[in-house]
Each structure stands twice: as structure tokens, then as C-alpha cells.
Specification:
With about 120 residues, the protein is mainly alpha-helical. It folds into two domains: about 60 residues, no CATH class; about 50 residues. Strands 1-3-2 form a three-stranded antiparallel sheet, with helices on one face. The relative contact order is 0.12. The N terminus is likely disordered.
């Protein structure tokens, strides 16, 4: 598989020309040892953590811009669109499983936005 640009500080990452970080996505079939497979997962987990942190910051901006924010301002239609777009990019993952992941990510982002709000 090709490298994809992600904002991650994973050990297997490298800086790209515009300052972004890249993490390699080795084909699962190319991994021959448990250590290689676990290292690849650790690199992806680092990338996911960085992406989730950035997503939470963007979600906080959305909350600030919405007329009704927080859990009361959730938009089920928008959330369905997110799940559908993710399902198209991850066809091996069932939409109902992705919906649970998206829900958890949204809830974590909303909680983080609440904690970031000035008192």
C-alpha cells in the first residue's frame, strides 16, 4: 500500500515536505513476524491518537460556532453522513460497527470540548 499523510508522531513516521507526518501502511500480508505486525499497529495507533486529538479540537470549534452546542446540538443526519463516508472508505468494516466507533469519537470530542470551555 502507499503511504498516506497523517499528523502523527509514530516511530515509523517521517516528515513530509510541507511539515505533515507520514505513516507507512504496510500490506497486512507482507508482515511476517508478530513484532512487525505489532509495530505496524503501534504506528497506526499513534497516528489515530494524533488524528483524534485534532478532530476533537475541530469539534470544539464546531461547538463554538453552532447555535446549540454540546450533546443537545448533535445532528443525527450529519452523523449518518459521517458513517456512510467512512463505510465507503472502509468496506471491510460493517456500517453498524463504524456507527459505534463514530458515536464514541463524537462523545469523546464533545466531552473534550466541554473541558476546554472557559469557566
Amino acid at each position: 500500500m502507499h503511504e498516506k499523510v497523517v499528523d502523527a508522531g509514530a516511530p515509523g513516521s517521517a516528515r513530509g515536505p510541507s511539515g505533515e507526518l507520514r505513516v507507512a501502511l504496510p500490506p497486512a500480508g507482507s508482515l511476517t513476524t508478530l513484532a512487525e505486525a505489532r509495530t505496524a499497529i503501534d504506528d497506526l495507533d499513534a497516528a489515530l491518537a494524533a488524528l483524534l486529538e485534532h478532530r476533537a479540537a475541530l469539534a470544539a470549534a464546531v461547538q463554538r460556532l453552532k447555535p446549540v452546542g454540546g450533546f443537545a446540538g448533535r445532528d443525527p443526519g450529519r452523523e449518518r453522513e459521517i458513517v456512510e463516508a467512512m463505510a465507503a472508505r472502509a468496506p471491510s468494516l460493517a456500517p453498524e460497527h463504524l456507527a459505534r466507533v463514530v458515536n464514541a469519537v463524537i462523545e469523546a470530542g464533545l466531552d473534550a470540548a466541554e473541558r476546554r470551555r472557559p469557566s
